[in-house]
């Protein structure tokens, strides 16, 4: 019985840990909303028909922790959906309605990530696009694909989805399953793994073909050669031909472990590759992470990888800057949390190498005016969405102008090409000089995340696109 998942709020409150969020598999009806265990006969909440539970205990517990605050709003959403009922909708019609509904939930509860996600990721018939709740009201059966379990067809349509979509969703379902199991085993949602022993010679990331090549030839995972497919989509035929069932399971677990680890390793590797692009090569590295949130703080342990891949590097200092960048006490009056040592592996300790972190709670253009500011070697904005957000003009624009003015190299990443295009269009208007034009990031995370609104069956990835600017065009 999954106990840690049941207890996730308490584990979360105990400190900075990564916990699996509500899985799509729960929203789409095959995992319990509270403990995330799989069941073919989940009991649906009779009021909202959206939350499903494996047992009375899970339902009671979930009601007391979360669902009592959600149920009523889901009922309202269902009523609105009913007013908009159409016997058949195109994807564009469906996604337009969904976008507005999700937006109104976000506006009503901006700090609640689960509430809008339950609606955003809701089950619907892939042909007529009537939602699970609409079909339930009409007593029309909604059949689940028995392979991926995440795509549906209603009894009136009997549609099928393409094998390529099915295979992407199967992979995604395996990631969710792995994350839940890994959290039960270790208390963490995503694995962290660095190159175990610091390299004695430097191999450039920019000369590497990508994750597989890096793991086999730069890091220390040569054992995956011939067992995992180079694109990480599955195991090689050899494993199925000669491996025992146990062996296949072990290899699949290794594939999932490394696939999920790329979602944290994407940060240090994207940084390191940018440093290679701007030919940075000094013994002490100072990085400013802008708009950093819990995600970046959780990934910090993986940043030791930068030390392990660059033999000449003696110290790595990171300053996290942003309104949600904070490691100090909530009531500390000053916004700066000074340099603090982070633990290093035994080899680095013996070598006297150091990792430090500091944080500033506030916007970057304020931070630069303080005595605590030291000019960095690289400024990094991971998936910041700096042109799109509500705070774009007030918060980001003065910062971006200052970065261009200061001539410091700045690395940006985005979730998709559209975001990268929007951001670069704005930067061209500001006359910024591109050191690296926007393009796919070789070191993007490999964990697929379905997005449900922009594109039917669309998936996005951490740091999918990247570009680097430095100074202005003259
Ligand atoms: Zn349960
Ligand atoms: Zn309910
Ligand atoms: Zn249908
Ligand atoms: Zn399928
Ligand atoms: Zn180390």
Entry summary:
With 474 residues, the chain is an alpha/beta fold. It has 17 helices and 14 strands. It folds into two domains: 158 residues, no CATH class; 208 residues, Rossmann fold, CATH 3.40.50.
Describe the structure.
It holds the Pfam family MSS51_C. One of its GO terms (molecular function) is zinc ion binding. InterPro entries: Mito_gene_expr_regulator, Mss51-like_C, Znf_MYND. Keywords: Metal-binding, Zinc, Zinc-finger. The chain has 2 domains: 158 residues, no CATH class; 208 residues, Rossmann fold, CATH 3.40.50. The mean pLDDT is 92. Strand 3 and strand 4 form a beta hairpin. It is 41% helix and 15% strand. The chain is globular. It is an alpha/beta fold. It has an 8-stranded mixed sheet, with helices on both faces. Strands 1-2 form a two-stranded antiparallel sheet. Strands 3-4 form a two-stranded antiparallel ribbon. Helix 8 crosses helix 11. The chain has 17 helices and 14 strands. The protein binds zinc ion (5 copies). One zinc ion (ZN) binds next to helix 8. One zinc ion binds next to loops.
Q: Which structural category do the helix and sheet elements fall into?
A: alpha/beta
Distance between the termini: 64 Å
Tell me how many strands there are.
Answer: 14
| Structural domains: how many | 2
Task: Classify the helix fraction into a percent range.
Answer: 40-55%
Number of helices: 17
Residue share in β-strands = 5-15%
Q: Please give the order of strands in the largest beta sheet.
A: 7-8-6-5-9-10-14-11
Q: From the alpha-carbon coordinates, what is the Rg to the nearest angstrom?
A: 24 Å
State the CATH class of the largest domain: Alpha Beta
Shape: globular
Low-confidence stretches: none
Q: Kindly report the average pLDDT value.
A: 92
Main beta sheet: strand number and arrangement?
A: 8 strands, mixed
CATH topology of the largest domain: Rossmann fold
The appropriate CATH architecture of the largest domain is 3-Layer(aba) Sandwich
Bound ligands, named by name, code or SMILES: zinc ion
């Amino acid at each position: 019985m999954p106990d840690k998942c049941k207890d996730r709020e308490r584990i979360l409150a105990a400190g900075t840990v990564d916990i699996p969020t509500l899985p799509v598999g729960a929203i789409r009806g095959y995992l319990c909303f509270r403990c995330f265990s799989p069941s073919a006969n989940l009991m649906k909440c009779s009021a909202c028909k959206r939350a499903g539970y494996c047992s009375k205990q899970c339902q009671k517990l979930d009601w007391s922790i979360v669902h009592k605050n959600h149920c009523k709003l889901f009922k309202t959403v269902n009523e609105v959906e009913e007013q908009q009922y159409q016997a058949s909708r195109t994807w564009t019609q469906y996604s337009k309605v969904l976008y507005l509904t999700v937006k109104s939930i976000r506006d009503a509860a901006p700090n609640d990530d689960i509430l809008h996600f339950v609606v955003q990721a809701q089950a619907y018939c892939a042909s007529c696009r009537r939602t699970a709740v609409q079909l339930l009201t009409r007593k029309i059966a909604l059949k689940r694909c028995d392979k991926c379990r995440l795509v549906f067809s209603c009894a009136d349509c009997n549609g099928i989805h393409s094998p390529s979509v099915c295979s992407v969703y199967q992979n995604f379902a395996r990631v969710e399953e792995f994350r839940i199991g890994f959290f039960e085993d270790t208390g963490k949602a995503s694995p962290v793994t660095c190159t175990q022993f610091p390299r004695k010679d430097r191999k450039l990331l920019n000369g590497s073909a990508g994750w597989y090549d890096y793991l086999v030839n730069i890091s220390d995972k040569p054992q995956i050669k011939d067992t995992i497919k180079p694109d990480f989509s599955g195991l090689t035929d050899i494993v199925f031909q000669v491996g025992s069932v146990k062996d296949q399971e072990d290899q699949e677990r290794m594939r999932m472990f490394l696939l999920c680890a790329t979602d944290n390793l994407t940060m240090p590797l994207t940084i390191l590759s940018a440093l290679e692009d701007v030919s940075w090569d000094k013994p002490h590295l100072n990085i400013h992470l802008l708009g950093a949130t819990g995600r970046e703080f959780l990934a910090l342990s993986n940043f030791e990888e930068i030390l392990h891949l660059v033999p000449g590097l003696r110290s790595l200092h990171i300053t996290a800057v942003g309104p949600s960048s904070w490691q100090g006490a909530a009531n500390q009056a000053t916004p700066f949390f000074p340099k603090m040592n982070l633990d290093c592996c035994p080899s680095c300790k013996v070598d006297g190498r150091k990792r430090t972190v500091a944080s500033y709670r506030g916007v970057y253009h304020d931070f630069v005016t303080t005595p605590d500011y030291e000019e960095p070697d690289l400024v990094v904005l991971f998936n910041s969405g700096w042109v799109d957000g509500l705070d774009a003009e007030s918060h980001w624009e003065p910062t971006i102008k200052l970065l261009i003015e200061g001539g410091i190299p700045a690395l940006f990443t985005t979730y998709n090409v559209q975001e990268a295009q929007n951001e670069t269009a704005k930067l061209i208007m500001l006359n910024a000089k591109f050191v690296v034009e926007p393009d796919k990031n070789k070191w993007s995370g490999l964990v697929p995340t379905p997005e449900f609104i922009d594109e039917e069956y669309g998936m996005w990835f951490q740091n999918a696109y990247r570009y680097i600017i430095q100074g202005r065009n003259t």
